[in-house]
Amino acid sequence: MDILVFAIYFAACFGAGVTGAIFPPGEWYQSLKKPHWTPPNWVFPTVWTTLYILMSWSAARVSGASDGGQAASIGLALWALQVALNALWTPVFFGLRRLRGGMMVLVPLWLSVAGTLVAFWTVDWISGLMFVPYLIWVTVAGALNFSVWRLNPDAAPLDLSR
Length: 162
Prior knowledge:
This protein is mainly α. The chain has helices spanning 3-22, 26-31, 43-63, 69-95, 99-123, 125-130, 132-151. Helices cover 77% and strands 0% of the residues. Helix 1 runs parallel beside helix 4 (69-95). The radius of gyration is 17 Å and the shape is elongated.
């Protein structure tokens, strides 16, 4: 694995992760009803750091695969799509306070993560395996987003008219 290639992929993940600092959960999120199984706040940065390392490492491995062919190209295109959707979710959910909108981002995010996993697996099974925790986490995030949306049907989105 080329460390420079890893660093470039990690920089893309870092860009997605920065949205969490720009649009932190804050008091609005704390005031929402959440399911009893909601992870504690400290879990999120720990999990995301681990996932971003795995995502970057897996993409770097696929990038360096000499016989990856079309599966590698499709996998890396899906990787770019999932990191873009990953970056979009936080501003939609926390920034605009759009619970339903968060779900509208999470569905294609989940599909792109699953597609990346499958494409990577065909090129390098270890790279595919590194995407399994991410797919599990996005599944949990989707269930959490859906639950918060359902538990807070009257949650008002951010008023942009001011």
